[in-house]
Design brief:
Elements lengths: L1 H14 L1 H11 L6 H12 L3 E5 L6 H11 L4 E5 L6 H5 E6 L4 E6 L6 E5 L6 H13 L1 E4 L2 E4 L5 E6 L12 H6 E6 L5 H12 L12 H11 L6 H15 L13 E3 L3 H17 L7 H12 L4 E2 L1 H5 L4 H11 L4
Parallel strand pairs: 1-8, 1-9, 2-5, 5-8
Antiparallel strand pairs: 3-4, 6-7, 10-11
Helix pairs in contact: 3-4, 3-11, 10-11, 11-12, 12-14
């Protein structure tokens, strides 16, 4: 087995060579925000959608646009508004008088990277159209079904401050996002750099350094990364502790959790840990890989009770307590 792991490790070393090049290219445009950029890459490599939450002006849109440019992929930004219709997103049928027949006009969803800006500003009909695209990787226009291009990734942003004129995302849709990443402010040094480059008009455009084909090839290789049974058990323990806290000596959390993480959490923790190991150029998963992505995978999947909200306990604090309690293999 050790020989196999050695061979896998060497293969991953070779196949993941583009990661450093890609991160360095994105780093020329995006100052700081290493966590966000890394999570976008993990979502892309795991074929999972990412929900970004942060106040305006933290380079959420710029990060997605830069990633798309560096990968030579087609990028579309859709601004979600209360009057947006499903047809504005997926396309519609238009009657051609000359030919006397209906023709399909495809919408902006037919791209590799979809930036759904302020996703919580649109009503349920638009969300359901987006849900089909996210889950099935296809859209239905009239009676025809169209397969979306690969890689296909929805990167949605939402502003945590403004709640006026917003629609809370349905739980089923939030669960479809592999990761929910919260973005903080840059440090003083980073902000100085951002200010200087904007004032001096030194904003750089990324050079395409990776092709969509190499991303798809990397996804296939990630499946080969070795994950020990102990790590699999560790992932299940984390997820089951959010459902049955008393069994894991976490009785104090029982009153705070209204419902625990779904089976998608286990799947995404395993996929995300493998993608994280790939980004770190390793052919095997270690417990630290699971811990590193646990908050991003679980914060939107663990719902807290009214009691928890009254005590100002967040789902992140609950997840953190679970991680502190579960024994690391």
């Amino acid at each position: 087995m050790s020989l196999d792991i050695k061979a896998i490790n060497e293969k991953i070393q070779r196949e993941s060579a583009f990661v450093d090049v890609l991160l360095s290219e994105i780093g020329k445009v995006i100052v700081g925000q290493k966590h966000m950029v890394e999570r976008l890459l993990i979502g892309l490599l795991s074929n999972g959608h990412v929900l970004l939450e942060g106040v305006p002006g933290l380079a959420k849109t710029l990060a997605v646009k830069t990633l798309a440019s560096a990968i030579q992929a087609k990028f579309q930004r859709i601004q979600f508004t209360p009057d947006l219709l499903p047809a504005d997103l997926i396309g519609t049928l238009i009657f051609n008088q000359k030919e006397s027949r209906f023709e399909t006009k495809k919408g902006p969803i037919f791209a590799n990277f979809i930036l759904a800006d302020e996703i919580n500003r649109s009503p349920a009909k638009v969300q359901s159209a987006l849900l089909e695209a996210m889950q099935e990787r296809q859209v239905t226009i009239g009676e025809q079904t169209f397969v979306l291009p690969e890689p296909f990734l929805v990167l949605a942003t939402q502003n945590p401050i403004e709640q006026e004129g917003t629609y809370p995302l349905p739980e089923a849709q939030v669960d479809r996002f592999m990761l929910k990443v919260t973005i903080g402010y840059p440090s003083k040094e980073e902000e100085l750099q951002i200010m200087r480059s904007n004032v001096n008009a030194q904003l750089r455009l990324p050079t395409p350094v990776v092709t969509p084909e190499s991303i798809l090839a990397a996804r296939a290789v990630i499946g080969e990364i070795y994950m020990d049974e102990k790590i699999e058990k560790y992932i299940l323990d984390i997820v089951f502790a959010t459902r049955s806290p008393k069994q894991y000596n976490l009785g104090n959390l029982a009153q705070l959790i209204s419902y625990g993480a779904s089976p998608r959490a286990s799947i995404n923790l395993a996929l995300g840990a493998k993608a994280y190991a790939f980004v770190k150029r390793r052919g095997y998963v270690i417990p630290e890989d699971v811990r590193a992505i646990s908050l991003d995978v679980l914060r939107h999947r663990v719902a807290v009770t009214y009691e928890a909200e009254a005590e100002e306990v967040t789902s992140e604090q609950v997840v953190q307590e679970v991680l502190n309690k579960i024994e690391v293999p």
